[in-house]
Amino acid sequence: MRLLAGWSQARLASELGYHHSVISRWETGDRNPPLHQLGRIDEVLRTGGRLTELYRAAGEDRCADPWPYAPPSASSHAPGGDSVLPLSEGSWPARLPHHGVACPSHGTDGCAVPSPERAESLWRAFTANPSSVVSEDVIHMLAAYLAVEVRRTEIPNSVSGGPTVEEAMRLITGGWHESGDRPNQSLTRLTAGYASLCGQLRMLRGQPAAAMAFYERGLRWALRCDDTALKATILCDMNALARFEHDGASAVGHARALLSFAGDISWVRSLACLHLARGYAILGDARETVRLVARSRAALEDSATNCGPRPDWITGDQGRAWVEAGIGGALRDASVTRADRGLAREALDATERSKSLVPVGQRPAAVLLGLRLADCHACAGRPDTAAYLASPLLAEALTATRTTVSHELRGLLGRLAPHQPHLTSAHALSIPP
Description:
The chain has 433 residues and is mainly α. The chain has helices at residues 2-5, 9-16, 20-28, 35-45, 50-57, 59-64, 116-128, 136-152, 162-179, 185-204, 208-225, 228-244, 248-260, 266-283, 286-303, 316-338, 341-357, 363-379, 383-390, 394-398, 403-416, 421-428; strands at residues 95-96, 111-112. The protein is globular.
């Protein structure tokens, strides 16, 4: 359609406010354009609404299968196969919720989960015949395993069971295809949670296109079961992925989607405003960034008096640490795009507040915020202080598995390079992709 209209990728990108590489990703299928842009593209290219029509026609197919690739046949799994749950000693929970993962059936009310021995037996039976009726025990087993793997992503240098997570995802969706049944709410919620984790694991492996495919399908399942926490988690991750690729326009689009269902839920409004601020910071709109930062803080304070259910990571001191860390990142990014040292100092204050709230033992968060503190000093015109703060963290940061840490380190070293070449030259080549 673009070629028929005589438009180049660069021209269309400029008209829509994107980088030309984003248009390329849309056309190759690595990414889908944000829903709010479809009508605009139709208008610009004068397609008569054809693009929106095609997207809607494909909508049922997209909603039918959250798996980015062809689901496997259940018959391809031999009964009594040798697939096992990769459980380390002491990692299996006794109850749900566990580490932010609630029971898909009982929610935050809580429930007991099968013992590790029983879980292994249930896993073998499930992998042998995933198209059979999924019992409550199987749902509890799969939810507990999801919680174990979510926890594993937060342990420094731990070995993730990523292949088994994706196997579980394939089996759940493949079983539905064979049985022809529509998934109930519990399975829909469980599937959305697995898709979200699969996206995070793909990001950790440096595979953003595959990560986005999982996020998009996970979001569709979260929308179907109307799970607010899952919708918020996935859209926040999609926003982060766009920011890692310096795609501020897509980051803003994902944050607007988050704001669209926030309603009177204060913690969702806080997250939406925060992620809007982060997107606008990349776009260089410092005024809008500062305005949204204030709105995010106000909404978070408002949520303190609202005792409704919410994820653990946005509750109490943990929630304040999370929001202040994001605010520090937004203000730092705005200081970079606008070369504004005043914004860098505000970013430093927010990052210090966040770091003071991080519990002892959460080393990945401490390393990330330590690097950001150093970067804020670099952006504020204090490269020597930045180098002094960063030096003790470099070895640990270079071996970190988190994409966020690698991204933070790359930006810091790039800004220190003109001032501290002896510090940055050797380390820059060792940063994970």
